[in-house]
Design goal:
The protein is mainly β. It has one domain: Sandwich (Jelly Rolls), CATH 2.60.120.10. Helices cover 2% and strands 55% of the residues. The chain is built from 1 helix and 22 strands. A 7-stranded mixed beta sheet has the order 1-20-17-22-15-13-14. Strand 7 and strand 8 form a beta hairpin. The two termini are 15 Å apart.
Length: 233
């Protein structure tokens, strides 16, 4: 089963300085039939104007992974971390018992990022923060295992039986992802377009996938994000 989700069908939060597409219920968007997919609770596709951003705000009991596509994200938090992240960087926070942070576009270019929230296996964990910078060759025409549970081989450990993968695929190239029994995928086309299991996907589109192997052919240069997890129910 594969369910195609068109980018234009996603809720648009337009605040002028911020334009965000919500894949699931978030902030002012409430839909009891679209609260999550498995342990994936949030996926927001954000465009943030220069010198704007989110001031200091709290999080708790959530695994938060931010993938930077364009521009520069400047992060500062209550644990003393401060850094700026550009394309190819992934930021990770395990909010645990509580953390406050700010996320600002301090640069002159529009910032484009994808932020995902994954529900952790336990509440009340000790907060932690980290980031990784990946080169194009790490994900060029292959799957980069960005995040996953300890021992999975992922570059970043998270507190949940879920994994995140990314790939940049050249136009005309193909890449498959074999889905194991009892597992599901959430697919996000971050950039470009593709034929995925016989359906055309444009930039921003997404899909829910269960019980079949993912077959991807890039129509144009493609940047793809996957979240793999246990099936619901």
């Amino acid at each position: 089963m594969i369910k195609h989700i068109a980018f234009d069908s996603l809720y648009l939060a337009d605040h002028g300085w911020l334009k965000s597409r919500f894949h699931f219920s978030f902030a002012e968007y409430r839909d009891i039939n679209n609260m999550h997919y498995g342990v994936l609770r949030v996926m927001n596709d954000d465009l943030i104007e220069p010198f704007k951003g989110f001031g200091e705000h709290p999080h708790n009991d959530m695994e938060i992974i931010t993938y930077v596509l364009r521009g520069e994200l400047t992060h500062q938090d209550s644990m003393g971390h401060m850094e700026s992240l550009s394309r190819g960087c992934v930021q990770y926070m395990s909010a645990g018992t509580g953390i406050t942070h700010s996320e600002i576009n301090a640069g002159e270019q529009e910032l484009h990022l994808i932020q995902t929230w994954i529900v952790p296996k336990e509440k009340g964990l000790v907060p932690k923060y980290g980031s990784r910078e990946f080169e194009l060759e790490d994900r060029h025409n292959r799957w980069l295992h960005i995040a996953g549970p300890r021992g999975s081989g992922a570059k970043i450990d998270i507190y949940q039986d879920a994994s995140m993968y990314a790939s940049e695929i050249d136009a005309g190239k193909k890449l498959d992802f074999e889905l194991q029994k009892g597992r599901a995928l959430y697919v996000k086309v971050m950039e470009g377009s593709a034929d995925i299991n016989g359906t055309t996907f444009s930039q921003g589109d997404a899909a829910k996938v269960e019980d079949e192997t993912l077959h991807v052919k890039a129509i144009e240069s493609l940047h793809l994000l996957l979240v793999e997890m246990a099936k619901e129910g």
